[in-house]
Amino acid sequence: MMKHSMKKITKLNALSIVILLTSLLGSPVVNAEKLTAIQVLEQSDNIRNPGVPFSTQVTLIEYHKGKEANRSVIKVHSKEQKKGGQYRTLVQFLRPKRDTGKLMLRNGNEIWFYDPAAKNSIRMSAQQRLMGQASTGDVMTSNFALDYHAKLMGEAVIKDAARKPHTTYHLRMVAKTNEVAYASADYWVEKGTHHPIKAKFYSKSKRLMKIAYYTNFQHQLGGIRPTQVLIIDGIDTSKVTKLQMSHFKAITIPEAWFQRSYLPRFKGR
Amino acid sequence: MMKNSNFKKLIILYCFATTSVWAASNEDDDLSFLPPTVTANAENVESETKPVDVFKSIEKKQFKFTLDNTLQSTNLKDQTDLVFKLPVLSSTSWTNLTRVGMRSETALSAVIDLKTDILLNAYTREGESFNGSDDLRLDIKEAYLSWQKSPTVFFDVGRINIKNGVATGFNPTDYFKVGTVLDRNTEDVSQLRDARLGALLVQAQTLWQGGSLSVAVAPKVNPKTNSWTTNKEVTGLNLHKSNDRSRALLKLTQEISDGFSPELLYYNEAGHHNVGLNLSKVINKKWFAYGEWNIGKHRNLMDEALLDTRKSAQLSPMIAQTFAVDKGKSYQQQVAIGASYSSESNITTKVEYHFNQAGLSKKQADNWFALGLKARNPAEIGQLLSVRSLAQARGEPLGKHSLFIRSSWADAGMDDVDLTGLLLMDLNDKSFIAQAQAAYELNNKSEVSLRIAKYQGNKKSLYGSLGQDYTASLLLKYDF
Asked: What residue ranges define each of the domains in chain A, with the CATH number in brackets?
């Protein structure tokens, strides 16, 4: 059963997706002139990181050669850590039905997976959460300014997923530690709004792992934020995952939730 | 000179401009990877949210049904190759196990839930006709009430599965594992842990930021045979397996630093004290290390296995001569330490060293095999083999020092195919069990797997002395 559950992790990697979600929330920031790379990154992080604990429902649709191959639904509960500014995240699997009730917890570099059928939680490495097509969530770790060094490469006009051009800052990012999901990334942030437009993530061997496009900007939790991400598998580009976020809700999350011992008790909120 | 310098600047500017344009246009080439089906609603403007089904986190009643079937064929070794010779009817045999499972969670009120996990098992065996009372069994793995007194205080009462431990191949602190595994059709302890009976107990738990404390008390249930609490026909609760002794467990977890939360355990089994510890720590993105330790007052495996026959004066004189003295109880340690590595190609490997101080020493093992060769009747062989049965029931290695390796490869070369391999080796005699499993996910609801286990070693070795040569299993699973 646990093996089977691990399979789900590799297929869905919901935690990563949650991290992605957290990265999509925030409020617009007023543009400043002549920003440094790290300032652009921080502004973008401010957009992506909400000021309140929240939950949201995420629908993951995996496409292969343009055809839908898999669909799953998760609920994400996330809360910023007072110390350090990183996010703790609890992911609850809702669909398909066989996965209902499974959980994944990330608290710092601690990752646990819980299967209610096995009544057991197992530890995972950060690398394990990167496995699978939908691990695309990891293309955006929760706080880039904490995880990466950044260099401003210049300005560039690039098109978003709807083929609409945007003037952007092009940032090149290099991970500060080995624990960060991807070793390096290129990141395009719209000038003025600091909306994320596109990102490309690389492994340590400089292999392109994921390409992400941020779309469907909507008013959510007090700001305009992207609610959909299209993620192309860098190794097999015929695989694309769409992440649709909905039902955003500011919630109260007790600190005690973010530990392994709580997982068998978790019901969601 | 000046003219030349300006010219150079112009060339540099031109190159930079053309490079930028080229780079931008290259970036837009990535859009070709997005098929129209994916970008249908990718307008980068605020738009009405497309209606999406809302799935409730908490449902008043949740039922999950599963159906699985395991067909296992066992190839037995030639009797002449065995130290412990037991009568067998044929060199191969097959068994089939079909199970229907139901797991439910019902909210009786806003703070009280009823949780159940029930399995109906049907066995068929080669050369035997199906007999309902013998071949059907209903296992109530769990059935308990859970009361949430506050968001961080909980009480539970009923039959509950309590699982402890961070290791994969051997869990010294998994105290409630003894005698509760339902079916031993795999050598993968992580799979065996998934299917076992819970114990009848009362539990309380409180949590705080970064820590928790829990207490569980399980009473001894009178082992009356053929009673509804034990093994009466199909529906006996088998409490003689899960509650054969009184037990109490106290567990404290506290985060000490980022990502490091040691778990300290105190376990009392029929008056005997045990102390355990679980540790795990991330090393980097690909590695984490873990350790599990227990110390408690026990007999060694051999003395414990022979205890009842020794007490009842039924121990074979030959065995009594070799294992003449019961050394009694003493503090024995058990350890499992290991590390996990995950590669970029989706392969996760765990390597563990296991130490069981109560296990057979080299001298004990040599004597055991020597007696096995001399044993003339099934009663003597049965007494000798009881040490192996005891180790198995306790979920402990039979030898003192073991090596365990488990490797799993998700999406192995193709989507929906998973491969898992494991090796369990006794470090004294180098005998081992190797098991390989390939699983293919047919769709969202069903999976088919093939599993093969091989038992290797000379006939006077812990794994080489097992009766089976290899087993092959075909597994089908369906989730409703």
From this structure: 2-265 (2.50.20.10)
Residues of B in contact with A4 (CB under 8 A): 439, 447, 477
B89-146 pLDDT, tens digit per residue, is: 666 689 999 999 999 999 999 999 999 999 999 999 888 888 888 899 999 999 999 9
- In this predicted structure, what is the pLDDT of residue A226? 85
The complex's ipTM?
0.84
d(CA A61, CA A70): 6
- In 3D space, the residue among A141, A129, A128, A140 whose CA is nearest the CA of residue A231 turns out to be A140
Q: How far is A139 from chain B (nearest CA, A)?
A: 15
CA dihedral (B268, B269, B272, B275) positive or negative: negative
B116 touches chain A (CB under 8 A): no
- Closest residue in A to B26 (Cα) is A158
Whether pLDDT at A23 is above 70: no
**Cβ contact (<8 Å) for A268 and B210?**
no
Domains of chain B by residue range: 61-479
B203-229: string of b/e by CB count within 10 Å (b at 16+)? bbbbbeebbbebebebeebeeeeeeeb
Integer CA distances (angstroms), A88 to B258, B369, B378, in order? 12, 55, 60
Domain B61-479, CATH among 3.30.310.50, 2.40.160.10, 2.60.40.1510, 2.30.29.30: 2.40.160.10
What are the start-end ranges of the H helices in chain A? 2-12, 14-23, 37-48, 144-147
Query: Is residue B188 predicted with pLDDT exceeding 70?
Result: yes
pLDDT in tens, B82-91: 889 877 666 6
What is the per-residue pLDDT for B43?
57
Do B166 and A108 make contact, defined as CB atoms within 8 angstroms? no
User: Could you report the per-residue pLDDT of A92-115, keeping only the tens digit for each?
Assistant: 888 888 888 889 888 877 889 999
CA A12 to chain B, closest CA, distance in angstroms equals 12
